[in-house]
Design brief:
Layout: E1 22-23, H1 25-36, H2 48-66, E2 71-72, H3 74-118, H4 122-127, H5 144-157, E3 170-182, E4 185-196, E5 199-211, E6 218-227, E7 240-241
Parallel strand pairs: 1-2
Antiparallel strand pairs: 3-4, 3-7, 4-5, 5-6
Helix pairs in contact: 1-2, 1-3, 2-3
């Protein structure tokens, strides 16, 4: 009959995409986590974000591939997964590198200080206990009384063991007990073993950084040197530590 359309004459393209597929919620969540993975550079606690983004991305892709006619959002899941993996790995690597450099520089400062003591250079060791920016205040030519008091405390803390040349003690690095960051200042607690004939004790070298207002750079100094130290008896409750 004229105008009649036979169903058998209609060709159905079964490979065509359906007009609408629901966006997979796991894919959306993965994308959101991928975007916020940038926060992982701020604090280790935020490392959970890229981990969650990676899990959501993998789950989303598995669900979408298992039922492609129902779920959409494959591209979103791929972007979220890539961002979570990339930013997460970069944040972890950056943080670990920062911890390594902090520990290395802290130990280097403590070693310079101890080397001055080993070789009887007490004046040079003393100046390492004063931040660069404060040294003028402790210059005997400027403020003799304050300089003498600071030097007296320096000797009382343990430097007195190194005053006599012929019985100068042996000093060896024992352990880095703690290191980390508080605000703009880095710190470390470094323990040394001190030995002389018939005598042995521990000493703690507490090093910190102070920002030089003239240069804008952090500079390490010895905040405390103390002998007759009980291992791990000094604790610093700072925000981020290792």
């Amino acid at each position: 009959m004229p105008g009649e359309v036979r169903l058998s004459s209609i060709v159905v393209d079964r490979t065509a995409e359906p007009e609408y597929r629901e966006l997979n919620r796991w894919a959306i969540l993965s994308l959101v986590c991928g975007i916020f993975s940038i926060l992982a550079f701020a604090l280790p606690v935020f490392w959970a974000i890229p981990v969650l983004g990676t899990i959501c991305g993998v789950v989303a892709l598995r669900k979408i591939h298992a039922d492609p006619d129902v779920w959409g959002g494959e591209r979103l899941a791929q972007i979220g997964l890539a961002a979570s993996l990339g930013l997460g790995a970069a944040a972890v690597a950056s943080t670990l590198l920062g911890w390594y450099l902090l520990r290395r520089d802290a130990v280097a400062t403590a070693e310079i200080f101890i080397d001055h003591l080993r070789n009887g250079r007490l004046d040079q060791a003393f100046w390492l206990t004063v931040p660069q920016e404060w040294r003028r205040e402790f210059d005997p030519a400027v403020n003799r009384d304050q300089a003498r008091e600071h030097y007296r405390r320096f000797l009382a803390g343990g430097a007195r063991y190194f005053l006599v040349d012929d019985i100068r003690p042996e000093v060896t690095l024992d352990e880095v007990e703690e290191y980390g960051t508080e605000g703009d200042s880095d710190y470390a607690l470094i323990r040394y073993r001190i030995r002389t004939e018939g005598f042995e004790t521990y000493a703690i070298v507490h090093v910190m950084t102070a920002k030089n207002s003239k240069t804008g750079y952090k500079e390490w100094y010895v905040a405390e040197f103390r002998t007759d130290y009980e291992p791990r008896s000094k604790k610093i409750q700072f925000k981020h530590h290792h």
